[in-house]
Every structure is written in structure tokens, then in C-alpha cells.
Protein: Sugar kinase
Organism: Rubricoccus marinus
Amino acid sequence: MERAVLVTKPTAWEELLVRFGTHGQARFWLERAGEDVDAIEAEHERYHTALGAVRRQIPGELRVQVLGRDLLPQYRFDASDVVVVLGPDGLVVNAAKYLAGQPVVAINPDPESIEGVLLPVEIDQASRAIARAVRHDAALRAISMAEAMTSDGQRLLAMNDLYIGARTHVSSRYTLDHGGRSERHSSSGVIVSTGAGSTGWLRSVIAGARGVAVACGGAVPLAPEDVRFAWDAEKLVFAVREPFPSVASGAEVVWGEVTRRAPLRLTSHMAEGGAIFGDGVEADFLPFRRGVSVTVGVSAQKTWLVTP
């Protein structure tokens, strides 16, 4: 390996400076809004202190490329890169879809405020973790990915989940095929979750459906925590959001497991506004217009997380 790519994100304070232009203007607006300016500045200082500490621990023989989150979609990673992500957890998710098997050293910059489920490496462990990744003897944890392939040859990966449907709050119209069953839908779109994402958006879908059913006096055996499954599981789970039953649309095929032998297929009936995006990044999407079909399954590509 010749290069370490250090992936970072702007702090809340840096985003405010972009918006307001000066420290004084940012502080004035925050104080008027009743925000704790000192806490925001302290978080900024902790992140940059961690960034400096990590940079000093990268082996001297490696070239270092610092890469902001906003440049991920345009950046071309080399197969020999070691990728160092300086949290939070969502930054690991953002980076994963643009990789092709490179080891990821994911570091928690601020354990007091970041849970770090996807950030197993502490700052003082960075040097050893990076060195082991360079030597190809690091302990790695595999994370399965979801893959969407459209009928016009486009591909999108997701580490947590895929969304398929309308980009705005209008009905998503499509035909869903899975496990030998086919149904035309008018819904709020479809979520397809990996094991890593099963405690996120998918869990909230279940929690909402369960809450409505319980409030209406129904018996619901499935609790939100029951949908969680292993990060390296060779399956995905799909859920249809708010399907509308009518003479032209159904609400029966709304949940299921997606495997290599049982992929999920959707065909769009939307003239405009249909989209497929991964991990909540709406700006990086595939068009899902009328006549386009998408097949979703477990990707052969995985994210490889370095563990200390």
C-alpha cells in the first residue's frame, strides 16, 4: 500500500462558518437562537485535535490524502489504498459504497459524544491498526452490502439501506416482484435493509407499524428489536412503506427476505421523480422512471472493517 486516504467531515462549527461567513456572525446567530456556542466550538476543537493525532500516526512511508465527505462521489480510490475514516458512524457508511474491498480503519474521534458502533478503533490504537492494514495482517470484520442494478446498466451500493420510490412526498408507483409473487403498488416507497442497517430505518418502519396496530387493538408479535440481524448476513430485508390498497394497487407483498436465490425486482410506473438512493444520500441517486426495472440483491462486494 502506498497511500492512506483520510476521510473527514466538516464539524457543525465549520458548516456554520460556511453559512454565515465569519465567527462573529455565526456566534451572534447561535446566541440569539439560544444555542450553546461553547459546546459547538468545543466539539470542533475535539475533532481537529483527533484529526491531528491520527495524521501523526500514519506511517511515514505512506502518502496521505485528506478527503472531505463531499468529494467521496467523485474520488477514485486505488485498490492499494488503506482508507482511514475519522467518524462519526455515518461517515463510514458514506464512504463504504465507493470502495472496492479496501480495508477501512474507522476511528472514533470523540467517544464521549459519539457512540461509535461502526468505529471500533480508538485514537491511540490508530497507528497499530493502520500498520496492520498496510501489512495485510489486520483482523477484519465483514459487512454485507445491498446492490441495486437497473435495466439500463446502472449500479448502486448501500451499506445500511436502499430507498426505491418517489423523491418527494407523492405516491411511489411501481410493480414489485419477489418470491414468485407480483403486485402493483402505490406507496411511500420501499426500504431494503442490510444487517448493519437493520437497527436504523427498517426498525423505525416496524416501530411505526407496530404502534398503529397496537393502538387499534391488534396483536403484533414482532417488536422493533426483533428485526435486527447480523452484519455479515447473506440476506437483506425489504419493507414497503404505507402501501395503499385500491382497485389498482395491492398491499399484500409488503415484507420479505432478499437472498441471492430470491432477489427483489421493481419496475417503475412513474413518468418523473422516481429515484433509487442509498444510505440517505439523496444527491447520489439513480433515476427510476417509467419502464426502468431494478433488481436488488446481496452484493458480492463487502465492507472490510479493521478491528483492533
Observations:
- The longest strand covers residues 293-307.
